[in-house]
Design goal:
The structure holds two protein chains of two kinds. Chain A has a single domain, classed as MetI-like (MetI-like fold, Orthogonal Bundle), CATH 1.10.3720.10. Chain A is 77% helix and 0% strand. In chain A, 38% of the residues are buried. Chain B has a domain of 160 residues: P-loop containing nucleotide triphosphate hydrolases (Rossmann fold), CATH 3.40.50.300. Chain B has a six-stranded mixed β-sheet with strand order 5-6-7-3-8-9, with helices on both faces. Chain B has a three-stranded antiparallel β-sheet with strand order 2-1-4, with helices on one face. The longest helix of chain B has 16 residues. Classes of the chains: A mainly alpha, B alpha/beta. Chains A and B meet through α5, α6 and α10 of A and α3 of B. Magnesium ion (MG) binds next to α2 of chain B.
Chain lengths: 230, 241
């Protein structure tokens, strides 16, 4: 990236490097949220609907893991994927896939814990009626996830915000390789350390804008569908 | 298909008690609910009407005694439906609420839309089909709930004070729906403390006080010759404690 240019000039000129960085950031964070949702939504729902020994401890742990330090998650995934680690054979370290894995782990507790809370509240309202209609366990999960969809969109957004904004895991497992694993946050960190503050600040503004746009879009979807379904 | 032929009637309570958290909600209740005209469960607030209906549905298990449906103490609730005192509306459209009931009752998918329309027409909600159910008024929600209950084509229909928050016209409309269901062979068991309504609907009356069934009689006998002072006082409109 030419260092004399500001971020706005880069955007205006449709700079290919900048575009690649933004695209990778979005692909990594959105993939991580999608994976976390695929696992976290049903996991949270099942946790909300079942009672077993140790459940309370699990719920408390899950809530606590919402605040997992990204560098620790990054370090853990690094150790798993490093050449001498158990999954070293796969050669995934310093690839976007490693970044997606690490961010999924970071986002999963957020999605699962918020889903658990949402579904548990909804269940206390729906329990009698669903029981009376003879709805089985899988039907309950499906019904509650669908009827909790407005709050669950918010849970997914919280996960996305966390993934898009963090720098610790992607730096450690991605390595900030130019043109391959450099994301907006790692680029900002790099430009800041090089003293290129205007560019770093410009990238930061691009990042914030993107997060705002995605949140606004999700908000719009929520309002629109709420008007139709109550 | 033998299961479909098994009847849930008569519904028999044999010395049933129900307790929770130190409260006795039902105390050694014995009663038999037979096919025929609606059975009205009456009694003052807190007398145990809701608790009785929940046991009829099989939602709660008795602390003592047995509840049996057609002689069976275990019976899946496929042939029963209940309308709660405060019905729950799914966060979906009115039509989707009915279609959900149909789906849970195993109604064939390709005929659900047509059947939903029939049921909505029956309760007079056709124009509101696409509205979010939770934005309806209390009376309209009550009608969604009865349509959803009727979607199950129940043999026993349990109604918990369904008209308590309805205006007189809506109450009459609701009663007409209930009577039509009763005439087509559904056994209606309905809690109420509106004595006018009891006179209009009841084949027989179960009168409850403080968790006990104080009296079970035909509607005529209950109003003309109450056998307990509590029932006589209740009919006169005096408070029963
Ligand atoms: N879960 C519960 N735990 C403890 N006590 C309860 C519970 N549910 C109901 N009760 C008590 O049991 C008694 C009977 O309650 P129930 O709801 O069956 O009365 P009801 O006849 O339906 O009254 P209402 O006319 O006000 O609806 C009441 O005294 C109530 O406070
Ligand atoms: Mg009640």
């Amino acid at each position: 990236m030419p260092e004399s240019l500001s971020a706005w000039e880069l955007i205006a000129s449709g700079d290919a490097t900048l575009f690649a960085i933004v695209r990778l950031s979005l692909v990594v964070s959105l993939s991580a949220v999608a994976i976390a949702g695929l696992i976290g939504l049903p996991l949270g729902a099942v946790l909300a609907l079942t009672r077993f020994p140790g459940r309370t401890a699990l719920v408390v742990t899950l809530n606590g893991f919402m605040g997992l330090p990204p560098v620790v998650v990054g370090l853990t995934v690094y150790l798993l994927l490093s050449r001498s680690g158990p999954l070293g054979e796969l050669g995934l370290l310093f690839t976007p896939i490693a970044m997606i894995i690490a961010q999924s782990l970071l986002v999963l507790p957020i999605v699962a814990a918020l889903t658990r809370q949402t579904i548990e509240d909804l269940w206390s309202e729906y329990r009698d009626e669903l029981t009376a209609m003879g709805v089985g366990p899988s039907g309950r999960v499906a019904t509650l996830l669908w009827d909790g969809r407005f709050s669950l969109i918010t849970a997914m957004l919280a996960g996305f915000g966390r993934a898009a904004a963090e720098v610790g895991t992607v730096m450690i497992v991605g390595g900030n390789i130019e043109g391959f694993t450099r994301t907006m946050t790692t680029a900002i960190a790099l430009e800041t350390s090089k003293g290129n503050l205007p560019l770093a600040m410009g990238l930061g503004l691009v990042l914030i804008s993107l997060i705002l746009v995605i949140n606004a879009a999700a908000w719009g979807v929520r309002v629109w569908s709420e008007q139709r379904a109550g | 298909m033998m299961r479909a032929l098994l009847s849930d009637l008569p519904l028999v309570f044999d010395r049933v008690s129900l307790r929770a958290g130190g409260t006795t909600m039902l105390n050694r209740v014995s009663l038999t609910i037979r096919p025929g005209a609606p059975t009205l469960v009456v009694g003052p607030n807190g007398s145990g009407k809701t608790s009785l209906l929940r046991l009829c549905m099989g939602l709660d298990a008795p602390s003592e005694g047995t509840v049996s449906w057609g002689g069976r103490t275990q019976s899946r609730q496929t042939r029963r439906a209940i309308l709660f005192q405060e019905p729950m509306m799914l966060r979906r459209s009115v039509a989707a609420n009915i279609a959900y009931g149909l789906a849970q009752a195993g109604y064939p998918r390709n005929r659900r839309a047509a059947r939903t329309e029939e049921l909505l027409d029956r309760v007079g909600l056709l124009e509101l089909a696409d509205r979010p159910a939770r934005r309806l008024s209390g009376g309209e929600q009550q009608r969604v709930a009865i349509a959803r209950a009727l979607a199950r084509e129940p043999e026993i229909l349990l109604l918990d004070e369904p008209t308590a928050s309805l205006d007189p016209a809506a109450t009459r409309h609701f009663e007409a729906i209930v009577l039509a269901a009763a005439q087509s062979g559904t056994k209606v068991v309905m809690a109420s403390h509106d004595l006018g309504q009891v006179r209009r609907l009841a084949g027989d009356v179960v009168f409850m006080v403080r968790g006990c069934v104080c009296e079970q009689a035909s509607a005529g006998d209950f109003f003309e010759h109450p056998t307990t002072p509590e029932a006589a006082a209740f009919i006169r409109g005096d408070l029963v404690l």
